Amino acid sequence: MLSNRPNTLDRSLWPVRTRVTLAEQFGASGGPPMLASEITTAAWTTFDGRRGYVLRGAIPQSDWSMLIVSPLAGMFASRFLGIVITLQLALSTLFHFLGKQHGVRESLQMQRRADLQVLADNLEVKATTDPLTGLFNRAKFDLVLGHELIRAERYGTQLALIVYDIDHFKEVNDVHGHQAGDRVLVQLSEIVSCEIRKTDLLARWGGEEFVVVLPATDGMTACLVADKLGRAIAQATFDLVGTITCSFGVSDFVVGDSVETLLARTDNALYRAKINGRNRVEFAPASSNLAPTLELR
């Protein structure tokens, strides 16, 4: 306790029977008493040679004030602990947000990679798909046939190729219009797709001409496949047109063949099918001048 009045320094803090001074009650201060005016609240003050932080508050209806003195070491320890706790909380929050930001960044990067992959896949599909029929286009056919030729050459496996087109397709367009002709191409693609194996590749070569790559298939078997396709097409009914027929050229791989030689041989077989009356299958073996034909019934 500290008196606000210098002349009351010898006043007892509480009523006692024997009047005693503050020094008698609490011991000597080691120096002259400090006056109230010498002490400022929320400031550093030296008491008995020891520095402390003072908080002062007046006692209501009294001439006395209450002082709370915090030692310097305790203040520093308390403040240091507060700094440490505050720093720990700040670092924890920072690490949390950094980790969260890192997770968000990784998630965004993964999503971006997925989007790019989807875009690449879509671009590849567009680059290898015929927009009208949904079949593979000539670019995809060239790529697959090249790979199959390499496989057949390396492992000695069989490979056959079918080329076919629609008989008198120009008349279909002239009589029924190009939209009807496009519809015929779409329906034809659907019919042939259902008749071939999953391992075979059907592609639109261009216009009304189509090609089928048949891995692990010899020439005679390919002729039977072409015959089956021709019969399925002839038995179908096409919108606005009625019935149509197709001519087929067939050839198989021989050692030393390239994409160009195999295609040329198969295309020549198709040409013979057309000049021999259409609606038929022509086979062009590489080892013989004979050209077996199979007329579709």
Automatic annotation (TrEMBL):
Gene Ontology molecular functions: diguanylate cyclase activity
GO BP annotations listed: cell adhesion involved in single-species biofilm formation; negative regulation of bacterial-type flagellum-dependent cell motility
Domain GGDEF: 157-286
InterPro entries xrefs: Diguanylate_Cyclase, GGDEF_dom, Nucleotide_cyclase, Rev_trsase/Diguanyl_cyclase
SMART domains: GGDEF
A GO term from the CC aspect: plasma membrane
Protein name (Swiss-Prot/TrEMBL): diguanylate cyclase
